[in-house]
DNA sequence: TTGACAAATGTAATAACATCACATATCGAA
DNA sequence: TTCGATATGTGATGTTATTACATTTGTCAA
């Protein structure tokens, strides 16, 4: 299966919940939103989330235990450059960006130290432009 | 109070547990290690951890829900440069480093986007040099 | 010294996040 | 059609973190 194709029923429901949200959602928030669609247990959500993470359609924000739909599904190639997230602690907005210099510096460190990197998390918490002017 | 001074009893116990560990510990692991010292409830650990984080003596690893004693308490100035952690998924070893170029690039992004950064997490998961040769 | 306030501690209960174990169903290829 | 891989349903359990409230300890000024 390729990334943007033929999701199963549960995967579609979970992805759509994230896609229509204006910010990150926790697994249990998703569960509550999908009760009327037949969801009864956390595992139904977590299994779908795992697949969607595999497909690169969503991201997990480790610092807030939440999940967000990928903001740039067509433009950035997950798996190559590292992705950074700026998370507003006021409104929950998440901005996603990729920086080749950061990616390069991390690679230099890992190569220099014989560290075989598998996954890298870069999360910036703070207050977004909108919320600081308001 | 300054950072490396006069911890309270509980703060000392928690800090020493982290300092003598060879890797990160979860709050509940610390709790279990301190049962004989009178610890009975998670909050006793979490409260001490919060203070030690304030003092910059320990770090929280968001991607693994664990805490680690600062590896460079005298050399790096927490609060200025951002700190990155390389976490071995085999042995648990954590290497801590700080990179001015990464710090600068993140600052460029946040300044350019009007984002007021408060805390930044950079965590690299993978396998350390020792574990990949073994 | 004592009264008052801040900081630290003790404890139980609860909330929030995530996985295990096992049964059943669905789908596609041999 | 039969087999294996994938997906699903469900309850129980495991793990991480916080709320609420009572008590103790330390500090300092009146
Ligand atoms: Zn993305
Ligand atoms: Zn905001
Ligand atoms: Zn440190
Ligand atoms: Zn290792």
TrEMBL record, chains A, B:
Cofactor(s) annotated in UniProt: Zn(2+)
GO cellular component, one term: cytosol
Cofactor mode of binding and number, as noted: Binds 1 zinc ion per subunit.
Positions of Zn(2+) binding: 88, 91, 128, 131
InterPro entries: FUR, Fur_C, WH-like_DNA-bd_sf, WH_DNA-bd_sf
Keyword terms: DNA-binding, Metal-binding, Repressor, Transcription, Transcription regulation, Zinc
Top-level taxon of origin: Bacteria
Biological processes per GO annotation: negative regulation of DNA-templated transcription; regulation of secondary metabolite biosynthetic process
Molecular function terms from GO: DNA-binding transcription factor activity; transcription cis-regulatory region binding; zinc ion binding
One Pfam family cited in the UniProt record for this chain: FUR
The keyword Zinc is annotated on this UniProt entry: yes
Similarity field: Belongs to the Fur family.
PANTHER family, per database record: ZINC UPTAKE REGULATION PROTEIN
Stated name of the protein: Fur family zinc uptake transcriptional regulator
Highest classification ranks of the organism: Bacteria, Pseudomonadati, Pseudomonadota, Alphaproteobacteria, Hyphomicrobiales
